[in-house]
Amino acid sequence: MNEEQVLAAIKEKTGLSDEQVNKVNEVIENTLVIGRNNKDKIIAGIKEKLGFDDAKAEGIYEAVMGVLAGGIADKVKEMFGKKEA
């Protein structure tokens, strides 16, 4: 998945506007994705930039991580020649 596809998938999963997805993307790009403290930083960034409560921000975080994990899984499959039909 390229960045455009990732952002489109995040938009689809979360129902956010393009502007909101871009703000979420800014938070993700400015924070390392791996690690518990980074999860907290990303959720805090989403809350700050978009004004969402804890539950909504965590839901967005989980959706984003799901999209990113799916993109990584696709890349691994490609590396081992297991493209989906």
Structure description:
There is one protein chain. With 85 residues, the protein is an all-alpha fold. Helix content is 76%, strand content 0%. The protein is built from 4 helices and no strands. The longest helix has 26 residues, at 54-79. The protein is globular.
Label this structure with key terms:
85 residues; mainly alpha; 4 helices; globular
Any idea what the shape is? Answer: globular
Largest sheet: none
Query: What is the strand tally?
Result: 0
What is the overall number of helices? Answer: 4
N-to-C SSE series? HHHH
User: How confident overall, as mean pLDDT?
Assistant: 85
How big a fraction of the residues is strand?
under 5%
Helix content: over 70%
Radius of gyration: 13 Å
- The N- to C-terminal Cα distance equals 16 Å
Poorly predicted ranges: none
Brief rundown of the structure:
The protein has 85 residues and is mostly helical. It has helices at 3-14, 18-29, 36-50, 54-79. The mean pLDDT is 85.
SSE order and pairing:
Layout lengths: L2 H12 L3 H12 L6 H15 L3 H26 L6
